[in-house]
Amino acid sequence: MKRISVQAAVLAAAVLLLVPELANPSGRGMAATPRKANSLGTVRSARFSGAPNSPASGRQRRDEWSVVLDEKEGKRYDSVGSSGPTFSPDSRRLAYRAERDGRWLVVVNGKESKPYDAMSKWSPIFGPDGKHMAYIARRGGRWLVVVDGRGGREYDEIQGDSLTFSPDGRRVGYEAERDGKWVAVVDGKESEAYENIAEESLTFSPDSRHAAFQAERGGRWFVVLDGTEEREFDGVSSLAFNADSRHVAYVAQQAGTEFVVLDGEEGRQYDRIEDGPIFSPDGKHMAYAAREGGKYLVVLDGKESREYYDFIKDSLVFSPNSHRLAYLAGDSEWLSAVVDGKDGKGYSDVQDFAFSHDSRHVAYDAEPKDLLKWLVVVDGREGREYDHVSNLTFLPGAGQIAYVARRGRKSFVVLHGKVGKPYDQIEQGTVDFSPNGKRVAYAAEEDGEWFVVVDGKRGRKWLWGTQITFSPDSRHVAYIAARGEGCRIVEDGRQGKEYRSAWNIRFSPDSKHLAYVVELRAGDP
Length: 525
Hints:
By secondary structure, the protein is mainly beta. Helix content is 3%, strand content 50%. β42 and β43 (410-415) form a beta hairpin. 42% of the residues are buried.
């Protein structure tokens, strides 16, 4: 069992107290239109933020919130949305939600939108090209999507996490409900009205030319592709396009069986489809895991694996070059990594399963049976034994790996095969490797003192350090550090102004800017 430190528990509790939206994310209670169970058993929920992000009822307002950009504080508000600041992909704009006197607005480069009664907690979002921005807002009792400052039609409800841009950034879509009926809205045009649309099922193809979603009418479910309804089933799920947008696949449920439908063609029926379907990165291969008569198997490009297992863990993964397939399978006694159709050695447990960036290597950390130890396995070769291993990752380059290990009472980082300095504790949730794989930072504890270690160098003592973040170009690192009743942002070793609290550190995509949210007492300079 992985241990959660008292330090982490205290920090999590503090975040929930300081950010009311995280403590009660729903904002509207249960959805007016629950998804029916025959959509493969999931339920629709309306997760919107409005007044719940404001200070609790009856609480005297003493605190103010602001977004800091490059050490300059923005306007102060009663609260800032839990998603924090968001940079556009081109790094030219910074946007976030804020609340003042019970009304919500979006702030873009310091300019405020018109106020609304509530906003979706996922808002705002930028398109992939950075040219467009959208968010969901409520005016009175009606919800609408605002794109580039222009509001669309109003609805009784809009599914917050359904709002999405196409990959080219030119199209926008979402799922909305009016008078008990659901529609998919793409480019401002509504689909036919349905009794239900599966949550988050609206999907654009990689080339942005096609849009599809899962809908229900009269208890029957089907996929709608570019406005055309496909065959009806008892249930449908796992809708996906391949990389070149030429193929679409999903799982269908009919008369107690499940099967994969690829380009309208139904595959073999099984008791259940357990994982997938997934397409390879190049879009040329498709795989899924199925259960038949109590046994599990993998189907790759329509061909069933020879081996049958008692279970297959949700782990199907293609290598980055699309030439290899791997997954975890086993029985009640062991778990094995199956790579290229070949079973590896069985272990009591396997974690952090991954391919290298060049696709030549596969690694994972494993717990040998009855040994109560952990070790790292690379291409089937076992490494040293430790009391625990975590955070295993492949670094860019020729198959180099990094991980955190513990032996006895000491924890350390292993990077490029070199063992780092041991400490009494390394906080697992704080470990971060730079995008280029050459740097590492984490919070550690020694003799009761906490500090952040960057590139092997120990920083000054803090009460705690968290949200350690490298810039996309790997040149900069920032984190939140606390001492006493306040905290500071530390960037490249330089301490910023002290605040009551801070959270959601963000580097811009071009690595030139740093933004975060801070809490101040009313009247603080």
